[in-house]
Fold:
Amino acid sequence: MYSRALPYLLILPSLFLAAVVIFWPVYDLVQISTHDVSRFGQLRDFIGLANFAALADDPDFMAALWRTGLWTLSVVAGALVLSIPVAMILNSDFYGRSVARVIILLPWAVSLTMTAVVWRWALNGESGMLNSALMGLGIIDQNIQWLASASTAFPMQVLIGVLVTVPFTVTIFLGGLSSIPDDLYEAAALEGASGWQQFRTITLPLLKPFINIAIVLNMIYVFNSFPIIWVMTQGGPANSTDILVTYLYKLAFRVGKLGEASAVSLVMFAILLVFTMIYVRLAMREREA
Amino acid sequence: MRKSKLVRSVIAWLLLSPLIVLTLFPFAVMFLTAVKPRPEVLSPTWWPSEFRWSNFAEMWVATGFGRALLNSLYVSVLATVGAIIVAIPAAYAMSRFRFAGYGAMRQFLLISQMISSIVLVLGLFRLIAAWGLIESTTAVGVVYMAFNVAFNVWMLQSYFDTIPRDLEEAAWMEGAGRWLTLRKVFLPLCLPAIAVTAIFTFINAWNEFIIALTILRSQENYTLPIQVFALVAGRYTVEWHHVMAAALLATLPVAVLFAWLQRYLVRGLALGAVK
Structure:
C-alpha cells in the first residue's frame, strides 16, 4: 500500500506547483476572454466569443499575426541554414575548435534583454557603432536611422533573432553529427563520392530527425520571443514591428483591454499546442525508428 | 591525400569568421562603450582615448546596481533550489517506478515546457495580484521555479535512467532501506547531473525578463535585466556608458559559467531530446 502510493507522492509537489502556476492562469484566461471585463479585471456578463470576434476585426492584431508568422519563419529558417554548416565545421577536427565552440555558443548565456539593449545602442542613428563601423568600411556614406522605421528595424530584429537562435540549433546538430559513424564517410570516399554527394546522401538524411526537432523547438521559442522586439522598438513605430507577444503585452498592460488580451493569449496557446503535438509526433516516430 | 590539419584549421576559422565577428560585436560594443570617458560616449568613434575603469564604480552607485544584483541573486537561487528539490523526487519516481500515470506525466511535462510565461502573463499577473504579491521578489522566484520544474525533471530523469539499477539493488541486499540507498548510493552518483541542471535553471532565472517586468514595478525590487532596461526605456537622456557597464557586469558571470559548462549541456540535451 505504502509503496503503491509512493511514486504519486513523489511527483505530487511538481504537479502541484505546475498546476497552480500554469493551469490556474489558463483557466483564468478562458474566463476573462469569454466575459465582459472591466479595465480593473472585474468580470461582468458572459459574452461568448465576442472578444475573439473583436480581434478578427482589429487590423493591428491581424498585422501582428502575419508579422509573427514572418518573424518565426525567417528566424527559424535563417538559423537552420546557418547552423548546419557551422555545426559541420565545429564537428570537424581543427586547431582551436573548443575556443570556436565557446564563442559561437556564447550568445546563449546572455540574457536576450541585454543583447537587445546592446543592439539598440549599436543601432543608434547618430552615435551607434554599427553606423560608424559600416562607414569606416566604406559600405555606407551616411548614417542610417535603423530603428526609426519598420523597413530597417524589423530585418535587424530578425537578424538578431537568428544570431541568438544559432547556438541552441548548433548544439542540437552537434549531438546529431557525433552520432554519425566516421566509417560511413570513409566508405563513401573510397567509392569516390564527392564532398557534396557525401553531404547529400549521408549527412543530411542522418541529420534529418535532429533538423525536424530543431525546427519545431525553435518555432516554439521564436514564436514566444518577447525581449528582442520589446526592448528595441516596443513594437513601434506605430505598431509596425509588433508581433503577437508584444501586441498582447500592450493590450493587457498599456491599453487595459483585458478581454482581448486574454483572447490573444488563448489564440497563441492554441498555436503552441499544435506545435507541441507536431513535436510529440516527431519524437515518437524517432523512438520507433 | 587528406589536407593537413593546419590548412583545415585556417579554412575552418575563415569560414566561421563572419559569424564570430557578429557574435563578438555586441561584446565589443558593450566593453568599449563601458570604458569610454563620458564626453566621448556620443561621438561615433570605436576606440576610447583612455580606458576609464572608474565608470564601473560610478555606474554601481548611480544605477543602484548592487540592489538589483542582490534581487537577481535572491530570485535565481530561490528558483534553482526550489526547482531542484521538487524535481528530484519526481524524476526519481519516473525513473524507478512503474505507475499508472507515467505516460500522462510525461505529456504534462512536455506541454508545460512548451508554454512560455509570456502567453500566461496576464493570468499570472492576476493570480499574483489576487494574493497581494505584486512587487514580491519571492513570488517571482516561485513562478520561475514552476516554469523550470519541467526542464529539471526532464533532464534529471534522462540522467537517472542511465544509472544501472544493480547498484541500488546491491545496497538493498546489504539491508539498506530505500531512503538510505537513495542518500548514500544514488544521489552521490547523480551529483554532476544535478549540478548542471541547477546551473542552467539559475541562468534561465537570471536572464528572465517578462515576469519580472510585469510583477516588479518599483526600482528597489528590480532584477538586473529590468534595471538595465529601465535605464534605457522611456528616458530622454540615456547614460549609455553606465548602461553598457551594467550590462557587461550582469552578463559576465553567467557567460563564464556557461562557457565552462556548455559541453555538459550538449551531452544532457542529446540524452534528453532524442531519447
